[in-house]
Amino acid sequence: MITAKKFKDEVMFLAQDIGVEPKEIQIRKMKRKWGSCSSKGRLTFAAALLEKPKDFRFKAVLHELLHLKYPNHGRMFRTMLNNYLEKNLFTNKE
């Protein structure tokens, strides 16, 4: 398990790499999804995500951060998601 502070640090580190700035990062109980991104730049993540392995958290955080650049799941969003996931396989091993 990771603390909320360390999780938010992970989010900000990845946001910097992607080149986005979330306005706010919230952690709360969510029943149906791991995260969401508002049109105003607020990211909300499920508290249960703190109990997941780092690679799982990475995918959820990456997905929401990319929505700050690409608000839908179109071709550019999917391309960038796949590029970052491939990059992570080689640079972020634990």
Description:
The structure is a single chain. By secondary structure, the chain is of the alpha+beta class. It has one domain: Zincin-like. Helix content is 48%, strand content 14%. It contains 3 helices and 3 strands, in the order H-E-E-E-H-H. The chain has helices at 4-18, 54-66, 75-91, and strands spanning 24-28, 35-37, 42-46. It has a 3-stranded mixed sheet, with helices on one face. Helix 2 packs antiparallel against helix 3. The longest helix is centred in the last third of the chain and has 17 residues, at 75-91. The mean pLDDT is 91.
Name the quaternary structure: single chain
CATH topology: Zincin-like
- Low-pLDDT regions: none
- The CATH class assignment is Alpha Beta
Q: Please tell me the total number of domains.
A: 1
H/E series, N to C?
A: HEEEHH
Number of strands: 3
Shape: globular
Distance between the termini: 15 Å
Binned strand content: 5-15%
Structure described in brief:
This protein has three helices and three strands; from the N terminus they run H-E-E-E-H-H.
List key phrases describing it.
single chain, 94 residues, alpha+beta, Zincin-like, three-stranded mixed β-sheet, 3 helices, globular
List the helices and strands and how they pair.
Layout: H1 4-18, E1 24-28, E2 35-37, E3 42-46, H2 54-66, H3 75-91
Parallel strand pairs: 1-3
Antiparallel strand pairs: 2-3
Helix pairs in contact: 1-2, 2-3
